[in-house]
Structure to design on (252 residues):
C-alpha cells in the first residue's frame, strides 16, 4: 500500500508549527510596527505546490514575510484574474514575491534569487557537482513532472481523464527521480543537507498522494519525504497551516 504522511505527528506538532509560522509570516492585512516595504510580500495559494516551494525557502532562510492569499479556483473570488494582479504577475499565476523593491515570478527563479541575495542557510551546496545535482532534481520536478499535472492542464482534460493522466505522468517522473536519488541522496535529496531540491520534493509528493499515485516503488522518495515532514519549517509551510486553507482542512 502507498505510504502515508504521519498525520499524528503533524497534529502533535501543530501548536509549535503554528507559533513558528506566526513568528515569520503574517497576512498582508495585519498590522505591524514594521513597514510593509521592509518585508517581502508573497502572493500564494495554500494548495499551490509552486507557492509551497517558496514558503519553504523563505522559512529555511528565516526571512519574515507577509502573505497575500491569492485564490486560483473560484472565479468570483480569484484575485489572480484581475487587472491589478496581472500587473504583478503577467502570467496570472502564483507565486509572485515582492522583495527589494521588485516583483519576481516563478518559484525556481525566486528561490535562486533568495539564495544569491541572502547567503544564510544556503539552498545550493558549495560543491559544483552537488549543486548540479540539486538543479537536476529541481528541473525533473519543476519542468518534467509538476507542469504535466498542473490545474490548467487537467481542466482541459476533464474530470474523467485527469486522474489517470496525473497518475501516469507523476509515476513516470518519479521512476526517473527515484533513480537519481539512489545515487545522490543521503539524509536528503543531495547528501545530508537540506537544499532547493528538498523544497521541491515535498510539495510534489503531496501532489502524488492527492492524485492517489501508488508510491510503493519509490522507497527513496518516500523516505526523504517522511524525514522532511518532521522538520518544523516544512510543517509550518504545509498547505493546511496557511491562512487561506479552508477550515475543514486546517491543521489536519
Amino acid at each position: 500500500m502507498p505510504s502515508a504522511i504521519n498525520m499524528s505527528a503533524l497534529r502533535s506538532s501543530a501548536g509549535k508549527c503554528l507559533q513558528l509560522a506566526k513568528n515569520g509570516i503574517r497576512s498582508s492585512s495585519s498590522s505591524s510596527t514594521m513597514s510593509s516595504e521592509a518585508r517581502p510580500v508573497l502572493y500564494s495559494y495554500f494548495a499551490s505546490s509552486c507557492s509551497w516551494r517558496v514558503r519553504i525557502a523563505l522559512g529555511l532562510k528565516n526571512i519574515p514575510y507577509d502573505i497575500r492569499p491569492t485564490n486560483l479556483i473560484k472565479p468570483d473570488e480569484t484575485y489572480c484574474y484581475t487587472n491589478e494582479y496581472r500587473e504583478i504577475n503577467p502570467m496570472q499565476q502564483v507565486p509572485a514575491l515582492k522583495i527589494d523593491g521588485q516583483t519576481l515570478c516563478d518559484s525556481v527563479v525566486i528561490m535562486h534569487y533568495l539564495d544569491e541575495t541572502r547567503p544564510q542557510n544556503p539552498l545550493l551546496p558549495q560543491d559544483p557537482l552537488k549543486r548540479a545535482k540539486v538543479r537536476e532534481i529541481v528541473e525533473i520536478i519543476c519542468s518534467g513532472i509538476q507542469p504535466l499535472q498542473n490545474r490548467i492542464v487537467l481542466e482541459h482534460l476533464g474530470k474523467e481523464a485527469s486522474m489517470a493522466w496525473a497518475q501516469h505522468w507523476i509515476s513516470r517522473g518519479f521512476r526517473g527521480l527515484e533513480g537519481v536519488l539512489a545515487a545522490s541522496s543521503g539524509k536528503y535529496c543531495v547528501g545530508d543537507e537540506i537544499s532547493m531540491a528538498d523544497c521541491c520534493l515535498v510539495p510534489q509528493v503531496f501532489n502524488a498522494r492527492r492524485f492517489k499515485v501508488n508510491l510503493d516503488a519509490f522507497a527513496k522518495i518516500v523516505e526523504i519525504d517522511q524525514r522532511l515532514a518532521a522538520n518544523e519549517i516544512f510543517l509550518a509551510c504545509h498547505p493546511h497551516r496557511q491562512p487561506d486553507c479552508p477550515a475543514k482542512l486546517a491543521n489536519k
